[in-house]
Structures are given as C-alpha cells and as structure tokens.
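Posting here for the record, re: S-adenosylmethionine.
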Amino acid sequence: MTDTPAARGRLYVVGTPIGNLADLSERAREALAGADVIAAEDTRRTRGLLLHIRAETPLIAYHEHNERERVAELLDKLARGATVALVSDAGTPLISDPGWRLVRAARAAGIDVVPIPGPSAVIAALCAAGIATDRFAFEGFLPRRAAARVERLRQLAAEPRTLVFFESVHRLPETLDALVEQLGPDRPAALARELTKVHEQIVSAPLGELRARLDGDIPLLGEFVIVVAGAPGEAPPDERRAREIYELLSSEIEPSKALKLTAAITGLSRNDLYRLTRT
Ligand code: SAM
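Prediction output follows.
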C-alpha cells in the first residue's frame, strides 16, 4: 500500500484596508477567518483587524527582517496542507511590502497562490489624481540617499508614463524639492494624503505649487502618495511634418498663405496648425 500524499495547502495573498475598515472585502474576511495561520507584517495591527471581524486565527510574524527564515517554516506548513493567508500592515502585500520571497517559493514548490485583491494606495491615488492612467510606472519609495535619489529622478525625467511614488511624511519635503528640481516646477502632479481616512485630501497642481503649499493648506501629516504626469511626448509624426511644411512655405510666401496651403496639403485644420506653429 502506498501512502497518499497530504493535500497541498494554499497561500492566499490578501489585500486589507489602507484606512477605512469598510474596504475589507467579503473574500478577504473569509480567507482571514478560515486560514490555519496568518503571516502578518505586524501581528499587533492584524490582531486589531481580526478583532473587527471577530476571528481568532493564529498569527505568525512575517516581516522584512525575518522573511528568509519564515519562508522555510511557512513552506513546510503549506506542504503539509495548511492554508496560509499573507497580509501586510495595510493595503496589498508585496507592493512596497514583504511577501515576494514567500510567493516565489510557494509557486516554485507547486503550491497554489491565490490573490484576494483589495485596496492599494497606488491605485487609490492614481484613480483620483486626474492624471493619465493608460500607462503608469510605480516607483515605490525613492532612494533615501540624496545622490541616489537625484540619479533615479534623472533616469525618470524623460519617462512618458505617469509616475507613482510612495513617501513618508518626514521625507516628503525633500522629495518634492528633488522632483521640482529634476522634473521642473510646471510638471502636473497630485498629492494624495490619508486616502480612505477621515482627513483624506487629494490636491492636483504643478509640482512647484504642491511644494509651496506643503505645510500650508496641505498639512504635513499622515500618509502620502505622489502622482506625477509623464514627460510631454514628442509631437506625433503628422504634426511634425505639418510644421516642416509650414516652415518651408512661410520662408517663401506670406504666413497666412503658408498656413492655408499647409492645411490643404496635410488635412489638418487651420486652428490646429495655428496652435502647432506657435508651440
Ligand atoms: N502595500 C501598501 C499598499 O498596497 O497600499 C503600501 C505599503 S507602503 C510600506 C506604505 C506607503 O503607502 C506609505 O508610506 C504611503 O506612501 C502609502 N500609503 C499607504 N496608505 C496610504 C493612505 N491611506 N493614504 C496615502 N498613502 C498611503
């Protein structure tokens, strides 16, 4: 007779509220209440959440300082059939939070990893900032060292995608200074403060203005996400071509005639051409 292998466990990656407890989803509640163990970044904080949902699931600390040791321990439990729920302090685990080593190891061991999507400050800030969302790059926290931060921002200055940064309240002023310096004071941006909480505040303004208002009508208190518009792109090829044609014609004939002819050649409206030739 052969031994039947124990059923394999399952790892749930559970998003939790970033401020407002009502944002905890029904699936998240079930996963937390039903797991054999919850791997939590801060067990005290997660205990508060469990109290809220009246669950008594055992907790095990899993944070950036013990991640490597805990992976082996949790993997062993999973291999013996346990259901493990992974949570961070708030929001979505692995997003500037611990967890990817456990997820990587679980997947490599053939264990099911099941995401239970929930709040994340990245998406909450982005969807309310009023800045293009079709393409964005999440940059997490910028390096702490000034030289490394400037270097990173130099690399990002020409990035056409919207940029999303996390920052702690203590470093926010110097980070905004660096953003103004490297990306320019006129770059459209937004500061999202205390998302989903009582003092939620989302301010859209150019970087220079945000910096000037910081510690004024934007209190230097709470948690912040910075959203910055991507670098303005090059004009589309048809606009570039129209500009070239206009420049050529206007060197030979009156500007108004050159504009009329350029419109006829390119099919662009005279209004568009007028705007193009003045930028
Ligand atoms: N994993 C989390 C998530 O998905 O939202 C993010 C964790 S990261 C360690 C913490 C940073 O997220 C904070 O420094 C802040 O930049 C941002 N953040 C978290 N909660 C926030 C909130 N309610 N309002 C604004 N920013 C928040």
